[in-house]
Amino acid sequence: MDISNWICINKNEVFSNNYLRVRNDKVQNPKGKEVEFSVVESKNFTATICMTKDEKIVMIKQYRYPWSSVSIEIPAGLIEPEEDPTLSAKREVREETGYKVLSIEPLLTWHPVAFSSSWGHLYFAIVEKEGNQKLDENEFIEVLELSKSEVEKMIQRNVIIHGATILGWYVAKTKKLL
């Protein structure tokens, strides 16, 4: 049996806005049985571990409405249509933190959740302070500079709970960038 032999019979959009679409698809699985799958289509995004030349980690602090709490995390954002992910990462770092990217390298590309079609692009960057933030109208972000040990402790104590931040942190450590 070919486990990748899934056939879409029809797609039914049940919700759509500027950020995402939700579909209920009727599909035939590899054994020939018809089943329904819900799919969330959303834009691809970037998230960047940012470190200064003196090895401070630049993080952001913002309120996450769906979580009803403040989150400490790495700069991240949606990739604009036709935008290169690396350029998107640099733009998001500059807009959210006021820091300029001096060098950047890709860490990982992954699907953040199984029911979504989006891709996440993780980066590691060396940054320096350049100016003020350039926030969107609905963004309220504080910038933090933390030591590596502070970030590590915050992850271990569940203070930092943002998935891309935790994934990026440990991938960067594995690659000996931190």
Explain how this protein is built:
The protein has 178 residues and is α+β, with helices and mostly antiparallel strands. It has 2 domains: 7-42, no CATH class; 45-174, Nucleoside Triphosphate Pyrophosphohydrolase (Alpha-Beta Complex), CATH 3.90.79. Helices cover 19% and strands 45% of the residues. The chain is built from 3 helices and 10 strands. It has helices at 85-97, 148-156, 163-174; strands at 7-16, 20-28, 34-42, 45-52, 57-64, 69-73, 76-78, 99-110, 120-129, 141-146. The strands form 2 sheets. Strands 4, 5, 6, 7, 8, 9 and 10 form a 7-stranded mixed sheet that branches. The chain has a 3-stranded antiparallel sheet with strand order 1-2-3, with no helix packed on it. The longest helix is centred in the middle third of the chain and has 13 residues, at 85-97. The model has no long low-confidence stretch (mean pLDDT 97).
